[in-house]
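Protein in question reproduced for absentees:

***
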Amino acid sequence: KLFEGRFHRSSVANHESFLSPKENDIVSVYAIKFSDREDLMEGALVREPAIVGNFFTMHIYLDNYVKFLDNALITNRTFFIISRDPGDHPNQRVIGKTFLHYFI
């Protein structure tokens, strides 16, 4: 888990890979998606921890996300780039690593 966030709005999923949070639901964030959709994160609602799905970053309060990024800069945290291609062998999914200062 990277951090926890709280939803400031409800949303109904229109795809099976998305969560359907209610206002004030807490989400455990597991991944920040950097691809053609930089506004997506992956996580699980605390009330339904077995269901992992995507959600829009703009639907959560960003204070804990900012704290996470600030701490990552201070500690020079390493981030791993993981392939989501289902054809990739599990031990070959780590395709790179980077540090936060490369994004800023």
